[in-house]
Amino acid sequence: MQKQNFHSIQKDLHIWSHCLKMSIVIFCSAKITAMNIEEIREYCISKPGVSEGFPFNDTALVFKVAGKMFALLDLSEEARGISLKCDPELAIDLREQHSEVTPAWHFNKQHWNGVDIKGSVSNTLLKEWIDHSYTIVVDSLPKSKREFL
Known about the structure:
By secondary structure, this protein is of the alpha+beta class. The protein has 5 helices and 6 strands; from the N terminus they run ααββββαββαα. A 6-stranded antiparallel β-sheet has the order 1-2-3-4-6-5. Strand 1 (50-53) and strand 2 (60-65) form a beta hairpin. The model is unreliable at 16-32 (pLDDT under 50).
């Protein structure tokens, strides 16, 4: 009897071990949910020299560095997206690779992308794109303004 219990326990442990491995694989391969509005806002304002405001209307939250816009977060219920400055060649690549990325509405389509934050863009990618937008604007500032960041 004891020998049977040992084999039964060993079999159960093998099954549980397999289940655990499968759970880890499923968890690790799952897409990370997109950042919410509060997380995006916190990330943007954490950057050096950033200010925020509503210069256009009460649903378009604009982020600027040294007075120059690098992001616009649409807070309206129907849109929920962010517009980000982007290198023109990269902008085209991102639009081709990600269905959530489109030319930004009311912006120069060559230099601005709109990102649907209700989609499946990961936190990591969105942060990279915010960083890229911020860097483009900072790099375009005169040296005297960059020194204060």
